[in-house]
Design a protein that fits this description.
The chain is of the alpha/beta class. It contains 11 helices and 11 strands. Strand 4, helix 3 and strand 5 form a beta-alpha-beta unit.
Length: about 270
């Protein structure tokens, strides 16, 4: 069992068979996201933004609860259920349950990397404006380990990377860095829980030991950048991450910028 700040979580027994329907680029990488019933509308909005590029049904989705799993499977998505009923509600940043979900994000990456597959992690509060595949294929052919969103306002800064959007190439070194399931790895995460959870884990333990590329803010803006200069960079954007706001202010921001894509019918299950 895996230990987080408050209680235990179930191990993610993810196999090649689980991710096989979602593998892309000669079966070398998989796109993945994590969600629950309380967060499902954001996830569906993100998936709909990928639909024009034919990528929405290629995302490997890890759902915390059965209710969320049922809805997503009925819609034709590939879903792995964790069966954590207590994690089925919306968990705002650093509130109860958020630390456990972030631990699952770390373990999800570790499990996929251990299957010798590259992985693109996508948070549900992201909206795609352009096809991300060309950049991903380019990264796949380069020698570095990780490409990750910059969570600062300066392209030159490397002080705070955002784990809501990141492409990771598998290797023994990277698997070892993402080993959050060993006793030592769990102790590391406990130091990060309720600081900034998996993001602190990356910045403290992974970033110093890997070859990392921070993604350009004009193409991959975080919320702090996009809310201020959206008109200036709109034509260059691949995706927008609606972070830097808490709770359902995310949805309000998406609607303000006309990036809430779901119809009323799609919002009612």
């Amino acid at each position: 069992m895996s230990v987080t700040a408050n209680t235990k979580t179930k191990n993610l027994h993810i196999t090649l068979e689980n991710i096989a329907p979602c593998l892309l680029h000669n079966n070398t990488f998989v796109m993945t996201t994590i969600t629950n019933y309380g967060y499902i509308l954001y996830t569906l909005n993100m998936l709909k933004s990928l639909k024009p590029f034919g990528l929405d049904k290629n995302v490997f989705i890890v759902a915390m609860d059965e209710r969320c799993t049922t809805i997503l499977k009925k819609a034709g998505y590939h879903v792995f259920c964790v069966h954590e009923k207590s994690l089925g509600t919306f968990c705002p940043w650093n509130m109860k349950g958020y630390d456990k979900i972030c631990y699952y994000k770390l373990e999800l990456l570790y499990r996929i990397l251990s299957l010798e597959k590259n992985v693109l992690l996508i948070d549900g509060d992201i909206v795609f404006l352009k096809n991300p595949i060309n950049d991903i294929l380019q990264w796949s052919n380069e020698a570095d380990d990780i490409w990750i969103q910059n969570d600062t306002t300066d392209d030159k800064s490397r002080t705070n990377m955002c784990t809501g959007y990141m492409f990771i190439k598998t290797s023994k070194k990277i698997c070892d860095l993402y080993d959050c399931v060993s006793e030592e790895g769990q102790k590391k995460y406990l130091k990060c829980a309720f600081d900034n959870n998996d993001q602190t884990y990356f910045n403290e333990y992974v970033k110093p030991e890997c070859n990392m590329n921070a993604l350009p803010l004009e193409k991959y803006p975080n919320g702090n950048v996009f809310y201020r200069v959206s008109e200036e960079i709109y034509d260059t954007i691949i995706m927008v991450h609606f972070n830097w706001v808490v709770g359902h202010l995310k949805m309000a921001k998406m609607k303000e910028h006309k990036m809430w894509l779901l119809t009323e019918e799609e919002e009612s299950f």
